Amino acid sequence: MPLDPQAKALLDQMQSQGMPPFDQMTVAEAREAVRIQKGAGYGLQSLAMLGYALGMAGRKNDAAEILERIKEIGVRRAVGATQKDIGAQFLSEAVMISLAGGIAGIIVGGILSFAIQRIAHINTIVSAMSVFVAFGVSVAVGLVFGIMPANKAAKQDPIVCLRYE
């Protein structure tokens, strides 16, 4: 059965980089490849869990952020800002922070991918689709988790905000 042209091109590329063909790979080499793949999977899962924990810790600070800026909210409301204006301000700040985090994540991911290729001699594939999806998720998380503090800040009573010490 003849090989698909894409599969043949991939096998040729692997052989040109020093990898033996699959039929010449020893059991020990195959086990090592599986071990590396599992280790990378565990590493990525740990990194995702760390990101989740940091995100949850950041959400805990929302109430503190509103209390820190309560005078600002009161002054803005006193000079004519509507609830919609205050909500839009807090929401846009949350989205901008998530945009910055998404860009930083793309940069760090690219650097790590390059480092893995150079140091471990493991081919990494970073597709444009995976970058766009990761960036979109970053912005979506900022938007979703920015709505609650934005609404909470917008609903503050301006008189109470100006009196707050």
Q: Your description of this structure?
A:
The protein has 7 helices and no strands. By secondary structure, it is mainly alpha-helical. It folds into 2 domains: 22-60; 61-165, no CATH class.
Task: Report how far the terminal alpha carbons are from each other.
Answer: 79 Å
Principal-axes geometry comes out as elongated
Order of helices and strands: HHHHHHH
What Rg, in angstroms, do the CA atoms define? 25 Å
In the predicted model, the low-confidence regions spanning at least 5 consecutive residues are: none
What count of structural domains? 2
Helix coverage percent: over 70%
- Judged by helices, strands and strand pairing, the structural class is mainly alpha
Number of strands: 0
Q: Approximately what portion of the residues adopt beta-strand conformation?
A: under 5%
Largest sheet: none
Number of helices: 7
Rounded average pLDDT: 77
